[in-house]
Amino acid sequence: MCLSIQLIITDFDMNCDDVTVEFDVFLTLENLIRVTQEGLLKKFKLTTTISTTRGSIYGI
Fold first, then answer.
1. Quick check: 6 pLDDT over 90?
2. What angle do CA 45, 48, 54 make, to 5 degrees?
3. Which parts of 4-59 fold into alpha helices (H)?
4. Cβ(44)–Cβ(38) under 8 Å?
5. pLDDT > 90? residue 60
6. With contact defined as beta carbons under 8 Å apart, do 42 and 48 qualify?
7. Predicted confidence (pLDDT) at residue 2 exceeds the cutoff of 60
8. Cα–Cα distance between 59 and 7 in angstroms, integer?
9. Torsions phi, psi of 17, nearest 5?
10. Dihedral sign, Cα of residue 41, residue 9, residue 35, residue 15
11. 26 forms bridges with which residues in the sheet?
12. Under a CB-based contact definition with an 8 Å cutoff, are residues 10 and 26 in contact?
């Protein structure tokens, strides 16, 4: 089985502490242009949709 892996990120720095989450992501200029065109949130999967089918309210 052959897996094709496409590397986009060249490097990253994490500057997190117990209160703040901060990180820097480094890309080549070519990859930055491509990721920007495809959509940053979609490409890095930074958002998602959550759906619920059932719900109950207790304590009324």
1. no
2. 155
3. 29-38, 40-43
4. no
5. no
6. no
7. no
8. 51
9. -135, -165
10. positive
11. 11
12. yes
Q: How far apart are the first and last CA of the chain?
A: 56
Q: List the beta strands (DSSP E) in the chain.
A: 9-14, 23-27
Closest by alpha carbon to 35, among 7, 8, 4?
8
Q: Helix, strand, or coil here: 39?
A: coil
Mean pLDDT of 33-43: 90
Average pLDDT over residues 29-58: 86
Q: Residue 28's pLDDT is what?
A: 93
Residue with tokens 């992501």: 25
Q: What are 3's two structure tokens?
A: 């897996």
Contact 12, 24 (CB under 8 A): yes
Tokens of 37: 């065109």
